[in-house]
Design brief:
The complex is a heterodimer of chains A (about 325) and B (about 475). By secondary structure, chain A is mostly helical. Chain A is about 75% helix and about 0% strand. A two-stranded antiparallel sheet of chain A has the order 1-2. With about 475 residues, chain B is α/β, with parallel strands linked by helices. Chain B has 16 helices and 21 strands. Classes of the chains: A mainly alpha (about 325), B alpha/beta (about 475). Chains A and B meet through α9 and α10 of A and α11 and β17 of B.
Chain lengths: ~325, ~475
């Protein structure tokens, strides 16, 4: 009994229970449910990536958030593909360029926060607008297709079922989990998120670690942008739009504390899969878009309610 | 038969399987001031939490004014029945003004002009108890230093006026300077014999002796003795608390001999010769330097400046330094973390293999400190907040002493810590000093200055006197502070 109690106290568990429940419904109403699961996992990959970046930022304490993720996705994906120019040989340059741009956006975000003392919400939104304008200037109307090699990679499925990018992201997530729990960087950002003054008095270079964190969030968005553009057959300006709120949703549903200091990589994976399963379920049921959003919102509220995220401080 | 304001009968309280209180029976008459002393973890705070309705007892019963209190007794009920408490961890809302805070706890200030009335009420109380307090009612609490916040907290309880029946003061003076603490004690002595019953909890035994009629000593969740204040002595109380009187004797004697450290290398020295603004601090290897004077007169600010050693314009400093705060909740604890994680944050390079923290190494480092300084925890994996205040402070000491820093800055590190823990801390400081570690030690307790080689006295933000440790008596320090 107490075993079940302590299991239910694990906040990340609810997203997995939710995912299992939704999959059960899909299996009941659809013949090719495993195909649906496989497709959901492919798309969930991108939620996981941006979710981890967003989680790092949120972990550094109350008020910290990255709202520039959607436009970073679009810009770095577009830039990478422009550099690749549909040529396999240029893939390394494209990756490097796209990720460098994403990192620069992340660092710029923290620059605004630190030197102009803007609240993170406003700073990242402002830089997001700048990045969007740059996208409009340089990439508008361009048909930027992925090189064949990259397109093949992102669509490859092991045994025809398991998307290889999902495995790639799982490995990345495992690494991040290790870093967060067992490396100095991870411990420090948790310390900053729990008690910034105590962290400073422990000699933690708070500004440096926040800079690294915002930069990493940018890089995760950049990786997402490149993979997503390859997966969907081309970079577009609006391809990141749904990731602003969903990146936050998967963090909170996954059991990380919105007030910072407590992160949860495992939960992000579960809640990302759950969110996409819901989308697919509602598609299968033929629900119209407006209703889909309502239903998704209700599920997010329900999971957060069940996992008992309390407002602290 | 004497009137009974409070009577507890065989109260017990368990947290999980461990008993925090066992069979506690005590009484308090109106107008009486009862002292309650004992180590941290002796059960004093648990008992007060029951009396103030924060949680119910596991067994036993208690009555207020002869009326038995049942399961429905909670904080609101306690307040409405005249029970008010001032706790060590302050309950003020930082973003509200002094007057607004009064309204939070005393909703009778309502309707037009409540701010003015609440402000007048608190000012009247402050003027009466703490003349010269310098607090304005429209000041936001966050702009007040810790000592002044404590003063407001105390005044807030008195604002219940005639509705005040039982006043519980839990370490009310730990953040106060000598002068302000004296004002409170004088006030308590003035109101004694009236209608208010007072329970006064403090680790500063001289204060307890000075303002109470009767003293109850607790140990390991039980009442271990009761003495009339006029017959009590420090030694007798310490004996009842169960700490070895030998070590207490040693502490009182301190090691008041001057040590010649002039040949040792300087860790902190001024970049420029002294200015008219005040003295400049120096610190040699193996030296303990005390910072004294009234609370909040710039001691902490200096420590923070020194801690930011790379950017310090005034001092040449051999870094890195570490910092032991006195306000654990605000400056020390990481509240979501275990004891182990709180303890090792300064020493990751030492518990890592291939850049990854080795959990067993981390555990063994923490275990070593638990054994050597007696951190009383069921498991080192437990949350830091599961420890009593004194044990949390031990963790903060372990955190800093485990690091290789040559100099350690301490910001009133024994604030609200029990006598036994203090002895351990003094012993640690002596041992580390003899190994060549240096300390800059701000303390609000005169008694601790005798552990220092030299003492700087602060007044209005600067150091106005330097006194050799052998001459740092209460009188000498007070003479320089006023």
């Amino acid at each position: 009994m107490s075993g079940i109690g302590s299991l239910l106290a694990r906040k990340w568990l609810w997203s997995y229970l939710g995912a299992a429940a939704v999959f059960g419904i899909i299996a009941a109403v659809s013949q090719n449910s495993f195909f649906t699961l496989s497709a959901s996992i492919s798309f969930a990959t991108f939620y996981i990536l941006v979710g981890i970046g967003q989680m790092l930022v949120i972990t550094t304490g109350p008020g910290n958030i990255d709202l520039s993720i959607p436009n970073t996705i679009a810009f770095s994906g577009s830039l990478a593909f422009a550099l690749m120019n549909e040529n396999n040989a240029n893939i390394p340059y494209g990756l490097l360029g796209g990720l460098a741009a994403a990192a620069a956006i992340g660092a710029f975000n923290y620059g605004l926060i630190r030197f102009i003392l803007m609240p993170p919400m406003i700073a990242t939104l402002a830089s997001s607008l700048i990045v969007r304008s740059l996208s409009i200037i340089y990439f508008r109307g361009m048909q930027i297709k992925p090189p064949a090699g990259l397109a093949w990679f992102v669509n490859y499925r092991l045994a025809g079922v398991v998307p290889i990018i999902f495995l790639f992201v799982l490995v990345l997530a495992a690494m991040m989990q290790l870093i967060l729990a067992r490396a100095q960087y991870g411990r420090y950002i948790h310390a900053i998120g729990q008690n910034i003054k105590a962290a400073w008095l422990c000699g933690v270079d708070v500004k440096r670690y926040k800079l690294i964190t915002y930069t990493l969030s940018g890089v995760f968005a950049g990786v997402t942008g490149i993979l997503l553009a390859a997966f969907t057959g081309g970079a577009t300006m609006s391809m990141g739009d749904e990731y602003m709120l969903n990146s936050i949703a998967v963090v909170v549903m996954g059991g990380s504390s919105i007030a910072g200091g407590d992160s949860n990589v495992i939960g992000i994976i579960g809640s990302s899969v759950l969110l996409y399963l819901i989308v697919n379920l509602l598609n299968i049921l033929g629900m119209e878009a407006g209703l889909r959003y309502i239903f998704t919102g209700v599920v997010i509220i329900g999971i957060i309610f069940l996992s008992g995220e309390k407002m602290r401080r | 038969m004497a009137e009974r304001l409070v009577e507890t009968k065989g109260i017990g309280k368990n947290f999980g399987i461990s008993p925090a209180l066992v069979d506690v029976s005590l009484t308090l008459a109106p107008g009486e001031c009862l002292g309650l002393v004992g180590h941290n973890g002796a059960g004093k705070s648990t008992l007060m939490n029951i009396l103030t309705g924060i949680f119910p007892p596991s067994s036993g019963a208690f009555s207020l004014n002869g009326r038995l209190q049942d399961a429905g007794y909670n904080v609101r009920a306690a307040n409405s029945r005249g029970v008010w408490a001032v706790f060590q961890e302050l309950s003020l809302c930082l973003n509200l003004t002094v007057a607004e805070n009064l309204r939070v706890f005393h909703p009778e200030f309502r309707g037009w002009g409540w701010r003015k009335r609440a402000g007048d009420a608190i000012t009247a109380i402050l003027d009466e108890i703490f003349p010269g307090h310098g607090i304005r009612p429209n000041q936001r609490v966050e702009t007040l230093n810790l000592g002044r916040r404590q003063v407001v907290e105390i005044a807030k309880a008195f604002a219940a006026g005639d509705g005040l029946g039982l006043l519980i003061l839990d370490e009310p003076t730990s953040a106060l300077d000598y002068h302000t603490a004296r004002q409170l004690i004088d006030h308590l002595n003035r109101i004694k014999g009236g209608s208010i019953g007072i329970i006064y909890i403090s680790h500063i035994l001289d204060e307890v002796l000075a303002c109470t009629d009767r003293i109850v000593v607790m140990k390991d969740g039980r009442i271990s003795g009761e003495v009339a204040s006029r017959d009590a002595t420090r030694d007798r109380l310490i004996e009842l608390m169960g700490s070895k009187s030998a070590s207490a004797g040693e502490a009182r004697g301190g090691d008041r001999q001057s040590r010649d450290l002039s040949g040792r290398p300087l860790l902190i020295s001024p970049r420029r010769p002294e200015e008219k603004g005040g003295l400049r601090l120096t610190l040699r290897e193996g030296e303990v330097v005390g910072l004294a004077g009234l609370a909040g007169h710039g001691q902490t600010d200096l420590l923070i400046e020194l801690f930011d050693w790379r950017r310090n314009p005034d001092y040449r400093i051999e870094g890195p330094l570490t910092f032991i705060p006195g306000d654990r909740q605000r400056d020390g604890n990481f509240p979501l973390w275990s004891i182990i994680k709180n303890l090792t944050i300064l020493v990751y390079p030492r518990v890592r293999r291939y850049r990854i923290i080795d959990l067993s190494l981390e555990r063994s480092v923490s275990g070593r400190w638990r054994d050597s300084i007696g951190i009383r925890a069921a498991s080192l994996g437990d949350n830091i907040l599961s420890l009593s205040g004194g044990n949390q402070q031990k963790v903060l000491f372990a955190r800093c002493l485990e690091s290789a820093a040559k100099a350690i800055l301490m910001d009133d590190p024994t604030r609200g810590v029990d006598v036994g823990t203090k002895e351990i801390i003094y012993r640690l400081i002596r041992e580390e000093r003899d190994r060549g570690r240096s300390f800059v030690w701000y303390t609000t307790e005169m008694d601790e200055l005798k552990h220092c080689d030299r003492v700087y006295v602060f007044r209005n933000g600067s150091m106005v006197a330097e006194i050799p440790g052998t001459e740092a008596t209460e009188e000498a320090v007070l003479r320089s502070s006023f």
